[in-house]
Amino acid sequence: MNRQYIIKVSIIIPTFNRIDLLKETLVSVKSQTINDWECLIIDDGSTDQTDAIIETIIKDDIRFKYFKRPENYPKGAGSCRNYGFELSQGEFIQWLDDDDLLSANKLELQVNVLEKLNDSKILTTCDWDLFWTNKNFIRNSIFDSTSNLNANNYFQELRKKQTFLPIHTFLIHRDLIYNSGNWNTDLTLNDDAEFMTRIIIKCKKLVNTKECFVLYRSYENERISNNKDIQSLKSFLLSLELMNNHLK
Known about the structure:
Order of helices and strands: EHEHEHEEHEEHEHHEH
């Protein structure tokens, strides 16, 4: 990689009316053992005083940057991610939802892996677990007897294990995202699966960074993946159609 980047990792967080959970997420970002990162928080129109509260949280650390989604961008997490990506200056991109968590060594270990491999078409992932209060941690992984998978093997393992990898398990070179395309803003559900399908198809291989992990928050209330309205169902079906076309 001959190109010079201003920052090593750009962490992009869309948020909407989740300031209490966002605070925990930002603590996990600030706890990272690597220092060379920026964190772009993109507000999707919150009405819970996110703007006032977030300024008090991030004021002492210039690596945190808070923006509101421009009015000419459609509402939605995917649109906020696209806007954050446009603003970002990092060599590697860490997508992160406003209620999920990273282990403290996640970015450092994954940057080390990708720098050693020195190929923008290789990406890395890690183990993960669902998270709620008092839950015992259990590592979930699609890597059994190997530390890396190509695209075909990756989708086979997902199907065999009937599982998925949350978006924040991955660390991705920005050039791979450029070559795969932005988030589809027509999707409100399963947009991460559709996005990562395009990424995986374009990559040479997917490498597991075993020593770190992420937590994917699970609860009963308003997580969008639990939303069963007609719009969400249409989005889910459209995402499956698009993924099927990509895979062909």
